Amino acid sequence: MPIEPYRRGPTWWAKGRVEYLGKPITEYYRCSTGASEEAGAWAWCRDEEERRIAEHLVGASRLLTFAEAVMMYPANANTARYLIPITELWGARLVSDISPKDVRDLAPRLYPNASTDTWTRQVITPVRAVINNFRDADSGDLFHVKGYSKQDRIRQDRRRGKLSRVKKEPGSWEWLLKFREHAGERHAALALTMFVTGARISQAIAMHPDKHCRFDENQICIPGAKGHDDRWLEVPAELVAELASLPRRYPRGAVRKPENLRLFGFADRSSPRKGWVKACEAAGIPVIPFHAAGRHGFGQEMNVRQQIDEKAAGAYGGWSDTALMKRTYTHAEETVSKIHGAFYRGLAQAEAATGLSLAQRDFSYKARTKKKKGAK
Q: Higher confidence at residue 48 or residue 333?
């Protein structure tokens, strides 16, 4: 049955399927046309039929606008925020007319003073995801955009007078203990949880005191993120006792229903920031951000300071790619003392083996002058 309008309350809705040569080419419609008059509803139905038939004949990607592709994409809150300014500029543009170079050129236009990493995160990644969400379903021909090179990053950093990819200072037990001395109970427990488990701030904030905790089994669940499932971990008894003692809280502004309870009681990832900074300042320690204090701290502690099996660290901390864990979440510490220590250990071994000494030869100016005179 072709789509046709029918009245439903104050508005007109549409029902049926779009047909071509008597054969349905769409799923069954039962949706609002948004029209308050029958004539407007019929116009909506005819327009929809024409669009769907044209898509059927020549391919949807040739007629789909970027705004329509955005509406088809299941964006999360962050991605939706990034897509708003892009859609304002490109909403009426056909997806088929967008080239990888267009995407790369759009980023500095939208964010002239941002880093290339920000351009990738806020322009390239969301545009690519929107287009591929449609293309994957339509033809399987994926849309690829080349990222920015190291030279691009250096040029942009010089242009804006600011370095990107500033070295992160990872959390440590020393930093954590000092932080906890001046933090409130929720911030102290949050910091310990992230450092011990490698949880991201967004994962920790989302934890529910009932759904994500089995205190009698010494287990907590880190909610899934970035393509990974939830992971249940057996955690130290000290952390279990601290989490179990936290009062049950609703985030500010949340409806007081059991499902809205949160283990730490924070509404979103930015909610703990003010208390976090205050505790750092009171303790006289660097203000290390959540991710560096928690996930980077876990990676550094396990891989560099304690040097445990990287497979075990990756599995517990939620990394399927241990190379990524070691490349991104480990950092050089005490570089000079380590290198100098290795230098002198090697020197001592060589001196013992050869019977020679680095200090035996005198390279002073006086010694060189004396040597030259003796040669004459």
A: 48
Sheet with 213-214, strands from edge to edge, namely: 213-214, 219-222, 231-234
pLDDT of the residue at 54? 67
Closest CA to 123 of 97, 154, 102: 102
Closest CA to 171 of 278, 274, 294: 294
Within 10 angstroms of residue 336's Cβ, the number of other Cβ atoms is 7
Residue 287's SS3 state is: coil
Q: What is the DSSP string of 92-122?
A: TSBGGG--HHHHHHHHHHH-TTS-HHHHIII
Amino acid (1-letter code) at residue 238 = E
Calculated CA dihedral for residues 227, 233, 236, 240, nearest 10 degrees: 90
E strands in 208-266: 213-214, 219-222, 231-234
Structure token pair of residue 324? 């990524």
**Residue boundaries of the structural domains of the chain:** 4-51, 66-160, 173-328, 335-375
Rounded CA separation 52/41 (Å): 17
Work out the average pLDDT over 98-122.
94
Q: Which distant-in-sequence residues (6+ apart) come within 8 Å of 265 by Cβ?
A: 186, 246, 247, 249, 250, 251
3-state secondary structure of 5: strand
Nearest to 283 by CA among 210, 197, 184, 350: 184
CATH superfamily of 173-328: Intergrase catalytic core (1.10.443.10)
| CA–CA dist 199, 193 (Å, integer) | 7
Amino acid at 284: G
Cβ distance 162 to 156 under 8 Å?
no
CA-to-CA distance for 185 and 129, rounded, in angstroms? 40
Over residues 55-88, the pLDDT tens digits come to: 675 555 556 889 988 988 888 888 999 999 999 9
Q: How many CB atoms lie within 10 A of CB 257?
A: 8
Q: Which amino acid, residue 79?
A: T
Higher pLDDT, 289 or 359: 289
Rounded Cα distance between 159 and 115, Å, is 10
The string of DSSP codes covering 159-214 is HHT--SSPPP----HHHHHHHHHHS-HHHHHHHHHHHHH---HHHHHT--TTTTEE
